[in-house]
Amino acid sequence: MPADDAPTLLFLHIPKAAGTTLHHVLERRYSRDVSYRIDGFRVGQSLRALRDLPEEERLALRVVHGHMPYGIHRDIPRACTYVTILRDPVERALSHYYFVRRTTRHELHDDVVSGRLSLLDYVTGGTRIEMDNGQTRLLSGVDYEVPFGGMTRDHLDQATANLDRDFAVAGLSDRFDETLLLLRRALGWTLYPFYVKKNVTRRRPLGEALDDPTRRAIEACNALDIELHERVVHRFEEALARHRHLDRELGRFRLLNRLYRGLVGPPSYAWTRLKTLRGK
User: At residue 263, does pLDDT exceed 50?
Assistant: First the structure.
């Protein structure tokens, strides 16, 4: 548990950017009575319910995590600090589309599976606002307030200013282990944040396999996100450089986390096969 005087941690979970795994890390570190999780399928309802909590209950919160735009700190009557994880915008768009494809309860699942909604349509058609610079939207705080195609460089600059001022860590999904170690140092965690990957979208093409027109369309819809991601990569590298011996610690952490996954993760194929043979 964190110290009582530690700021409330606000994890701004950008969809399809390794956030589900971090949710599980946080849920092991913070007890339920001091945690509030935003329901990813009922974001607006969850945010309204948080704002409607009595002040003493909001004051007691030590972590709020979920799909939420920047700005929730205004509803927490104590000091707060944000963390987030960003992802390459093209890879994120692909992951988003194939997540819908395998999630039967998603409202667009049938359209995607039937072929009525192609990847190109999904990204450029205006039906999914998060496909239009969705990371800049959340980090600038505008979210759904700006229509599809209405994002500007002012929003990008606002997102960057928010990151610089209020975020203890802005991590990268493809540098997840380093992100966790930066979080550990920034938040004063004594134990390593071991994890097993969660909610990974499998059986989808990589960005390199996209045809040029589709790639260019995704990049056009996410031009601000591409620049924001580049800024965060630069910021991330600077943060790593400030921490001495982090590369040595990274090797130790990865070794220990492999042991952790072996203990608590899903059984390996070899172990499953051995149990099957023994049962015959």
Answer: yes
Q: Is residue 24 within a helix (H) or strand (E), and if so which, with residue range? A: helix 19-29
Q: Strand, helix or coil at 64? A: strand
Residue 2 belongs to a domain: no
CA distance from start to end of the chain:
46
Q: What is each CA distance from 193 to 27, 28, 63, 170, in whole angstroms?
A: 11, 9, 16, 16
What is the Cα–Cα distance from 189 to 193, expressed in whole angstroms?
A: 8
Q: In this structure, is residue 50 part of a structural domain? A: yes
Residue 256's H or E segment, with its range, is helix 246-264
Please count the structural domains in the chain: 1
User: Which residues, including other chains, have CB under 8 Å from residue 190's CB and lie 6 or more apart?
Assistant: none
pTM above 0.85, yes or no: yes
- 171, 170, 133: which is closest to 155 by C-alpha? 133
SS3 114: helix
